[in-house]
Amino acid sequence: MIRTIAIDDEPLALQLVSGYVRKTPFLELVESFDNPISAMEYLENNSVELIFLDIQMPDLTGIEFARVVHTGAKIIFTTAYEKYALEGFKLDAVDYLLKPFGYEEFLVAAQKARKLLELEQKASSSIETNNEFLFLKSDYKIRRINFSEIQYIEGLKDYVKVFLKNDPKPILSLNSLKTLEIKLPSAKFMRVHRSFIVNLDCINTVERFRIVFGNVYIPVSDQYKEKFQEYLDQNFL
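Above: the chain sequence. Below: its structure as tokens.
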């Protein structure tokens, strides 16, 4: 099942796309949104594989949304305006559905997305999982970052700051915190806030649900307190 969301400010269009997703056996509609801002907030803490995205919306167009939100999800644009097609494909969209479209056109686009996701899954499964390090683009260079060197990571909209144990200057990289969360081994790293991931091996002091790294206090938000408390309980004497 492909985890899918739909975004459209027109109620009837959103209802139509949501209905098409629900009737498609290999798609799972996890959420639908009538505005892109709510969708951005949802994607901060949730992962999806496919987005059906309207283009003409207030506050943030679908094109702008695709430029600023880096989730790794495939995008299928849905719009009544053919003029945006070229720009949509420049953003590596899987397909471009021109309203009004029927279920057959929808299904063809969805199958394209499924094939791409299957190819990516096969490619990634052929590579042995690495639990020691990752490569990160920063300042026009690619740097190898050993997991053991990471103290914590801070998310800043489209960027992340990776703070290392023995380096006062963080590494700045164009990435989302969600992308790094997926790459990092869950046994060693935990997300404790919408803006922070910490290396569990580096935690020495916790004060009122704040993790203390020297002069830095990282809050544990309500959403993650239960999971963090479970970790503390497992290692508490």
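The helical segments are 11-23, 36-45, 62-68, 85-90, 103-125, 177-183, 222-234.
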